[in-house]
């Protein structure tokens, strides 16, 4: 049974026999659409279009277009660059009739309030709302219809957005394909459409013929914000285009815009605002938005001169820096694919990515990363040049960053501008390579619209302050979460992005946080765990009255945040005192004193870690998404969260729970404009991930509660099916075990096609800061736990040598407590062992985002596993 989109209200929740569907989008109201009448005004009541819309009727001499529109949620004065893309420009409307004739373009100015796409109403993007005001899109006189035209019916209206400098040349340009032509059968509308087309001016969720057979040209020259008509909703081809998943109203109806335009508008609105700040030789070096934009164009011209062809990759291998950002965007401007590569990748993994995207240019940070590329250079047939962005290259044929910039400055703008004119928002521009936890990395194709719409949706949802936000970049930029949080959202919001030092995750992050004091902060669970461990260590050394005050304050902080979870925003008695003498000081020490949004993402975080930060009045919440959804799909906010939940679906995005069981658990599916185009050159994998209706099948198992909060309970590919046929999601059991035993670093459940469950455990140990390799010495937190159970062990070897009876007994007790939480005997752990070395990225057990590579662990410790099940 196909999905039904009948959301009753904002945050609607619908259950059918086949799935549970949750969406944050408001209900589509087909009973009260806008329509155009012969007097040139818009009717807000239901219209049959009378004779003006019927086939064969006389066309009136004049039609004026007037639309209902909602103002930017942040107001006109503070709307971000995307909200002002159309405003302040002149636009040209091309009215198309079913007799294939086209009127002379009409042009007019658009004011900031009138930020809507011109459209005939065949599939209106907005339905009337009594809370919104009516504003004319253009003066009536600018939409006068030529009376000499033949009789006919309006099929669609194209809108061309023109810069003031281009108005004189507007007649020389081809018209932009209409947004209506590119409207797909999306999760919002597909299942509601009937097979028989309706009259184009009459509101309907059916699909007119023009959407099924869009007009196509051999060349499109109105980029970069144009839409090329497409028949498909997914692709794996480098030059492929897909239908835009434009909605009829609300966030998903936001006008599409390209990455080059997003940066250009940021440079125009915030020319002197610091966009990028990096510490070099002990001093912060700043780049303004105007300089940022100019440098991206210069490097784009250099890439073109160096041989970058359309639809070929620019691989970037290095730590976060302004050069990383500039190289990434320059690849997009030049019509190539920006492809970030994990710095932890082996040369072989780098080779796989380079071959997949036919990379012609590599941009590397230093000699260490350069050596990886040099080892595989002979196996990269598309490679043309390598650029090194820090230090002086010592290898012939490797270009320095400064030399590449100098080359770009020498080039004219002609070829770059030509490429920008051929660009479209529904083409791929960025590749995000998956971490490869279950197989070779896949190149996720993200379009301009994927990136810019997702940035817009998250800025509006989280109420970002234009031109005032401060961000800190330290997570790997090859990961979609970092790109969205550090590159695109700041660009949309006009924010300032500071770069941490390369050794941020080895110890310098804390000091940088104190200097930068970000207003929004996203960390992976391991970052929050390290802060937690340090705070706990300090707490253990606190005694007397200070400890008593801290304990009292934490109880108040936890109560205050648990009230928020219940939608009770009152403060407990004593909160003001606790805030003044404890919370404010802790936040200042951490560098989070002006932070208003604290997020954990990329992997699940333990509930006890969340509650600990809540007790410090740091309302840490989780954000959930994936590379294939351009990052965020659900988010927990301070005023809307539940501990253990991945949050609410972001407005404009859609969540479906496919084939739920009796408890409501099923596969989490995503729909919306943030869903990627597909996997580059991987047809089979693309079709597996994205179905025919545009739903992205995540492979995650989850449920949505009655309040709309998403809970992730496991992975389909990780699902354990015991010999007795019991289906078991391992993550919940593993998390329960780690909650009972704070000494445990990793726990991996075993039991697929086995008679019972067993588990591999690793203890928390110190790490070699240079190599990332785990050491034999136990961490301070682990040693404290050992002492609490009567053991003086300081290394894993000491624990296993005896083995240490106190530790073994304490671990068994913890497993017994976890087993009491199991809903059935089949879900109880019967055997366990401690692995003599913690899991790590260098060891291969963890991916770059610290996700457990279960197949690797099973293969690596197969003999240990088999001993569990010997007779």
Automatic annotation (TrEMBL):
One of its GO terms (cellular component) is endoplasmic reticulum. InterPro entries: AMP-binding_CS, AMP-dep_synth/lig_dom, ANL_N_sf. Keywords: Fatty acid metabolism, Ligase, Lipid metabolism. Residues 26-40 have a biased composition (Polar residues). One of its GO terms (molecular function) is long-chain fatty acid-CoA ligase activity. It comes from the Eukaryota. Residues 41-54 have a biased composition (Low complexity). Pfam families: AMP-binding (PF00501), AMP-binding_C_3 (PF23562). The keyword Oxidoreductase does not apply. Residues 63-77 have a biased composition (Basic and acidic residues). It is an enzyme of class 6 (ligase). Residues 264-680 form the AMP-dependent synthetase/ligase domain. Residues 23-82, 166-210 are annotated as: Disordered. This is long-chain-fatty-acid--CoA ligase. It comes from Cherax quadricarinatus.
């Amino acid at each position: 049974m196909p999905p039904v989109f009948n959301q009753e209200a904002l945050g609607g929740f619908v259950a059918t026999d086949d799935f549970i569907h949750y969406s944050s989008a408001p209900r589509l109201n087909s009973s009260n659409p806008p329509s155009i009448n012969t007097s040139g005004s818009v009717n807000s009541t239901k219209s049959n279009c009378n004779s003006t819309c019927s086939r064969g009727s006389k066309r009136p001499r004049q039609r004026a277009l007037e639309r209902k529109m909602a103002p930017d949620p942040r107001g006109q004065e503070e709307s971000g660059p995307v909200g002002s893309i159309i405003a302040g420009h002149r636009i040209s409307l091309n009215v198309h009739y079913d007799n294939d004739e086209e009127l002379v373009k009409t042009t007019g100015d658009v004011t900031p309030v009138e930020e809507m796409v011109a459209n005939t109403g065949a599939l209106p993007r907005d339905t009337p709302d009594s809370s919104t005001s009516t504003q004319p899109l253009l003066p009536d006189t600018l939409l006068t219809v030529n009376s000499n035209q033949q009789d006919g019916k309006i099929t669609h209206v194209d809108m061309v957005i023109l810069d003031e400098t281009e108005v004189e040349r507007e007649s020389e340009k081809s018209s932009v394909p209409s947004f209506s032509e590119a409207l797909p059968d999306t999760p919002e509308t597909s299942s509601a459409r009937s097979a028989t087309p309706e009259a184009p001016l009459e509101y309907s969720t059916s699909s007119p013929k023009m959407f099924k057979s869009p007009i196509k040209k051999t060349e499109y020259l109105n980029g970069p914000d144009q839409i090329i008509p497409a028949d498909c909703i997914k692709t794996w081809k480098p030059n492929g285009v897909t239908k835009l998943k434009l909605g009829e109203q609300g966030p998903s109806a936001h006008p599409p815009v390209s990455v080059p335009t997003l940066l250009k508008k940021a440079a125009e609105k915030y020319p002197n605002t610091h966009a990028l700040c990096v510490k070099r030789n002990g001093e912060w070096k700043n780049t303004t938005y105007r300089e940022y934009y100019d440098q991206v164009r210069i490097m784009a011209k250099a890439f073109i001169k160096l041989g970058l062809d359309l639809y070929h990759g620019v691989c970037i291998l290095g730590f976060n820096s302004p050069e990383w950002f500039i190289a990434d965007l320059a690849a997009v401007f030049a019509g190539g694919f920006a492809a970030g590569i994990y710095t932890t990748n082996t040369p072989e993994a780098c080779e796989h990515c380079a071959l997949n995207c036919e990379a012609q240019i590599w941009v590397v940070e230093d000699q260490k990363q350069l050596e990886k590329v040099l080892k595989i250079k002979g196996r990269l047939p598309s490679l043309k040049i390598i650029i090194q962005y820090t230090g002086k290259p010592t290898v012939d044929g490797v270009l320095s960053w400064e030399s590449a910039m100098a080359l770009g400055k020498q080039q004219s703008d002609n070829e770059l501008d030509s490429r920008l004119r051929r660009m479209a928002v529904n083409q791929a521009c960025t590749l995000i390579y998956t971490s490869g936890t279950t197989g070779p990395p896949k190149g996720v194709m993200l379009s301009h619209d994927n990136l810019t719409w997702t940035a817009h949706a998250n800025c509006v949802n989280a109420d970002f302050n234009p031109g005032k936000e401060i961000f800190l970049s330290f997570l790997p930029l090859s990961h979609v979460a970092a790109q969205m949080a550090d590159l695109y959202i700041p660009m949309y919001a006009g924010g300032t992005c500071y770069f941490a030092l390369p050794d941020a995750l080895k110890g310098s992050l804390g000091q940088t946080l104190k200097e930068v004091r970000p207003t929004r902060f996203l960390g992976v669970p391991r970052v929050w765990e390290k802060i937690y461990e340090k705070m706990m260590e300090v707490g253990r050394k606190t005694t007397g009255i200070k400890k008593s005050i801290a304990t009292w304050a934490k109880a108040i902080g936890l109560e205050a945040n648990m009230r928020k979870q219940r939608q009770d925003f009152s403060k407990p008695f004593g909160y003001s005192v606790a805030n003044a003498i404890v919370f404010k000081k802790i936040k200042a020490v951490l560098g989070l004193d002006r932070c208003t949004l604290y997020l954990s993402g990329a992997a699940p975080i333990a509930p006890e870690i969340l509650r600990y930060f809540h007790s410090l009045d740091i309302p840490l919440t989780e954000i959930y998404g994936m590379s294939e959804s351009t990052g965020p799909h659900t988010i927990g906010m301070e005023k809307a969260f539940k501990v253990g939940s991945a949050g609410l679906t972001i407005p404009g995005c859609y969540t479906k729970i496919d084939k739920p069981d009796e408890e409501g658990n099923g596969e989490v599916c995503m729909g919306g404009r943030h869903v990627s185009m597909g996997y580059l050159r991987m047809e089979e994998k693309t079709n597996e991930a994205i179905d025919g209706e545009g739903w992205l099948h995540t492979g995650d198992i989850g449920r949505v509660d009655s309040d709309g909060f998403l809970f992730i309970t496991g992975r389909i590919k990780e699902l354990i099916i015991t010999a007795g046929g019991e289906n078991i999601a391992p993550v919940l059991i593993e998390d329960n075990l780690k909650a009972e035993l704070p000494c445990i670093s990793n726990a991996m459940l075993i039991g697929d096609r086995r008679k019972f469950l067993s588990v591999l455990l690793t203890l928390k140990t110190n790490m070699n800061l240079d190599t990332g390799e785990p050491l034999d010495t136990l961490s301070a937190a682990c040693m404290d736990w050992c002492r609490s159970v009567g053991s003086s062990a300081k290394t894993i070897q000491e624990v296993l040598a005896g083995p240490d009876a106190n530790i073994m007994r304490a671990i068994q007790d913890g497993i017994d407590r976890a087993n009491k939480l199991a809903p059935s005997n089949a879900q109880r752990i019967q055997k366990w062992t401690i692995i003599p070395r913690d899991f790590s990225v260098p060891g291969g057990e963890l991916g770059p985002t610290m996700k457990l590579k279960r197949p690797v662990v099973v293969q690596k410790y197969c003999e240990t596993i088999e001993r569990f099940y010997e007779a």
